[in-house]
């Protein structure tokens, strides 16, 4: 006895073969996973590219400053203590130029290695200069915020050189330091992420071509 189409059980076709329609076979009920994943991957890739471009720009700027300083004889130092406030706030970047010791005058701000600790760099003002008969000088320095002068004298020959501060850029020393840290930590991770993404795109492109 044959049953009418309207009385057939759900999932049984007209031919009575008993085959069932799987939810995944129904285009209307399928979850658009690929449709969602493609824009998401594209957005992540675009964000990664922008981050790489920004970091590359920062790297180029810092490299350019270092090269320009080397060519012109200027160099840069970050101020990390308060001995020169308010003239030079903590976190400032000072730009120095190479000058002859004979051109130094009281009031100049110098960048020099601490005589008692060669691993420490000092940024202090000249408080007094004593000139000897042979042309050499003895320089007494002092921090603007310090009550007493430094407990040392810096001796320079007549033909010696010194690093004199010519520009003070408040806050840029901290920015430069943080920028270096970000570049060291984040740039390798972004490069690895970009390479992995690029490799996956190449792999899928090859699979698509072979198909």
Give the gist of this structure.
This protein has 211 residues and is an alpha+beta fold. It is built from 2 helices and 7 strands, in the order H-E-E-E-E-E-E-E-H.
How much helix is in the residues? 25-40%
Please give the CATH architecture of the largest domain: Ribbon
Q: Strand order of the main beta sheet, please?
A: 1-2-7-3-4-5-6
Bulk shape: elongated
Give the SSE order as H and E letters.
HEEEEEEEH
CATH topology of the largest domain: Umud Fragment, subunit A
Question: CATH top level of the largest domain?
Answer: Mainly Beta
State the CATH superfamily name of the largest domain. Umud Fragment, subunit A
Which segments are poorly predicted (pLDDT under 50) over 5 or more consecutive residues?
A: 1-21
Mean pLDDT: 77
**How would you sum up the major sheet?**
7 strands, antiparallel
**How many whole angstroms does the radius of gyration measure?**
35 Å
Number of helices: 2
Beta-strand fraction estimate: 15-25%
In whole angstroms, how far apart are the ends?
Answer: 48 Å
For this entry, what is the oligomeric state of its chains? single chain
């Amino acid at each position: 006895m044959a049953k009418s189409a309207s009385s057939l059980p759900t999932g049984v076709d007209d031919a009575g073969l008993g085959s069932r329609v799987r939810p995944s076979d129904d285009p209307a009920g399928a979850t658009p996973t690929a449709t969602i994943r493609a824009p998401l991957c594209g957005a992540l890739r675009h964000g990664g590219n922008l981050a790489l471009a920004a970091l590359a720009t920062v790297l180029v700027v810092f490299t350019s400053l270092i090269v320009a300083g080397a060519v012109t004889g200027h160099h840069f130092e970050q101020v990390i203590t308060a001995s020169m406030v308010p003239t030079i706030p903590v976190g400032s970047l000072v730009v120095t130029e190479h000058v002859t010791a004979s051109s130094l005058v009281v009031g100049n701000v110098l960048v020099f290695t601490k005589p008692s600790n060669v691993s420490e760099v000092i940024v202090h003002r000249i408080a007094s200069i004593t000139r000897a008969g042979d042309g050499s000088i003895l320089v007494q320095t002092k921090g603007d915020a310090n009550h007493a002068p430094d407990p040392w004298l810096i001796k320079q020959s007549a033909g010696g050189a010194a690093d004199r501060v010519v520009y003070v850029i408040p806050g840029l020393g901290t920015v430069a330091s943080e920028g270096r840290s970000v570049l060291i930590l984040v740039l390798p991770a972004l490069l690895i992420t970009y390479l992995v993404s690029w490799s996956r795109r190449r792999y899928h492109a090859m699979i698509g071509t072979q198909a």
